[in-house]
Amino acid sequence: MRDQDAHPGPAEHRLSTKEAAELLGVKPETVYAYVSRGQLSSRRVPGGRGSTFDAKEVETLARRNRRESGGSPGSGGELSVRTRITFIDRDRYYFRGVDATELAARHSYEEIAEWLWTGQLHPGVTFTAPDSSVQAARRAVDALPEHTSPTDRLRVAAIAAAAADPLRFDLSEEAVLGTARTLIPTLVAALPPVARDRRRDDGPLAHRLWTRLSGRKPDEASLRALDTALGLLVDHDLAASTLAVRVAASARAHAYAAVSAGLGVLEGPLHGAASGLAHKLLLDVLDRGDAAPVIAEELRAGRRVPGLGHRLYPGEDPRARALFALLEEIPRAEPALLAARDIVATTARHAPLHANVDLALAVLTASSGMPSTAGETVFAVARTAGWIAHALEEYGERPLRMRPSGLYVGPKPPQPLPQPTPDQ
Predict the structure, then answer these.
(1) Mean predicted confidence (pLDDT) in 82-109
(2) Residue 278's closest CA among 244, 330, 317, 243?
(3) Which of 49, 193, 249, 359 is the most exposed place for a label (fewest CB within 10 A)?
(4) pLDDT over threshold 50, residue 197
(5) To the nearest whole percent, how much of the chain has pLDDT over 90?
(6) The three-state (H, E, C) secondary structure of 134-145, written as one string
């Protein structure tokens, strides 16, 4: 493995090992394997132990890998699942062939969800939940420790709602749609309200969700931003949580269980919880008044800067672009917006990464007086509708088709029986 000694040109962008691995969709060790094979060149970080890589060279290799595998960006050709729900192409994404950002700009979250499930648009539709489902979910959630994360609360609420539904094992389309229309409002109603004197369980879902996230009285622009965020996040192709939902549905788990599987995966820091990291970063920049020292500390600690870059978008995340445009109409969001722009501009000196939806969510939550976990809650509630859409698709496929074969790389059998380990 040889590091190149030439100095970078003035227009050359360098990526860290982690950033190169993320763009290629591989482990950091594989990046160095590419170097050893002569497929990538690297350069040592002056005074450090890490290496940097030319961004254009990495992007060229990523495109070549995708062509050779026949997969889409980020898929690596490892798994291909037929779907009619979401299509991602360059810097745009589509729900059933319709531009998703335009759909979210013109329709409410419930309208988008209903259309995603049925292909029919019902203006003004709202989701309501029966008292039995809400009470069962609230009792279960109220019994949890105070420090319980939002995703844990939602998962417990989903399980409690399932236990209260004797028809949950009916996987017919009509029954699953009925579950979807009651489960989502149940999840929101089960979350403890921030301001108990303003508990709201009617009207659009975004209005009800706001009281669970912020103690501030919302203005119309803020409610519109939250509702649009929900619509933008409804689905995003086969993200890790969505794949888990389809695996559960392939085994014919009922809709509540499939959603629970998605919530379990969502809690990872590289998925739904990523917005919380961006929220904390944003608050740190606001507190210091300058992104430079904050970004320096992140990079020095070997962490990637949250809220930047997306393996499916070479440019700006279209969800972030749409949400930022709405946030510009909210005066109190201006400081957070300026801090977000400072983060992007400062990091651009290190790597050509654009803002993603996690940073946009962080601006929304930080400027609305919401906790750092609020973005994760918005993400989970929004994505539940997409999970239901994928579960419905999977119920129409051959059962247990999501069963890959393992490639065994362990000791060659037969091996002798293990011997007891002596006590130390």
Answers:
(1) 95
(2) 317
(3) 49
(4) no
(5) 65
(6) HHHHHHHHHCCC
